[in-house]
Amino acid sequence: MEAAVKPHVLIVEDEPKIASALADYVRAAGYRASVAGRGDVVPALVAAQRVDAILLDLMLPGMDGLDVCRAVRATSQVPILMLTARVEEVDRLLGLELGADDYICKPFSLREVVSRLRAVLRRSAPSGAAPALPFSLDADRHALRVGSRDVALTPVEFRLLACLCERPGRILSRQRLLDAAYVDHRVVSDRTVDSHIRNLRRKFEALGLAPIASIYGVGFRLDLE
Ligand code: CA
Q1: Second label for 180, Cα 20 to 30 Å away, from 21, 39, 130, 195?
Q2: Would 1 be classed as within a structural domain?
Q3: Could you tell me if 18 and 108 lie in one domain?
Q4: For residue 60, how far is its CA from the centre of ligand 1 (angstroms)?
């Protein structure tokens, strides 16, 4: 791989040890890495050069990760992987709809970071058209179809799946899925989503697919590969 075509990963992390370990690992995985130790420089860095993905710490001097994410999203769709210290923070992050692509909780394994990075880079790879779903939804019959086989869905399952299909590759919070699934705004626990997702997964499994990923403590994502 030539240096010029290696994807460029910008690591925004103020702890030098973590930053350099991330940079080493990202480089070993075949990417170009650069490091910023403060948040306020990031929008200018993204504007000034090609950046293919950002690993973004939440607590940063200069500008915190939330504001960095917002500022970058105002001008760029570059994939952003947030590094957060606690899983409880992630719910809040998602509630803010900042447009981050994925979240990793500290302490993380470097291997996990690189595998998530690969996934966001793959999802953002220019393809011209949105990737095709490996199944189709029949809205009249509330059915999930793969090839010539299909499975009936309940109305709630159908709405949940339709919502996931609108934003493949992005994490959707339980609350957002609930809003989509219950149009009458019945009071239901957000854990209700989990049992419907379990049923949906069983139906997908019967068709040989497993496209719904759980993001621990946060929500769900439709993965296309
Ligand atoms: Ca930090």
Answers
A1: 130
A2: no
A3: yes
A4: 5
The 3-state DSSP class for residue 136 equals: strand
Separation of 37 CA from ligand 1 center, angstroms? 9
Tokens of 70: 């917002």
CA of 134 to the centre of ligand 1 (A): 39
**Preceding omega of 107 cis (within 30 degrees of 0):** yes
In a domain, 2, yes or no: no
Say whether both 24 and 120 belong to one domain: yes
Instruction: Write out the residues surrounding ion ligand 1, Cβ under 5 A.
Output: 14, 57, 59
Q: What is the pTM of this model?
A: 0.61
**pLDDT 10s digit of each residue in the chain, 225 long?**
444 478 999 999 999 999 999 999 999 999 999 999 999 999 999 988 899 999 999 889 999 998 999 899 888 888 899 888 776 676 666 655 667 778 888 888 888 899 889 888 887 766 544 557 888 888 888 899 988 888 999 988 999 998 888 877 778 888 888 888 876 666 677 678 899 999 999 999 998 899 999 887 778 989 876
* 157, part of any domain: yes
Q: Are 99 and 80 in contact (CB under 8 A)?
A: yes
Q: Could you give the number of structural domains in the chain? A: 2
- Total residue count of the chain as it appears in this document: 225
Instruction: Measure 61 CA to ligand 1 centroid, in angstroms.
Output: 8
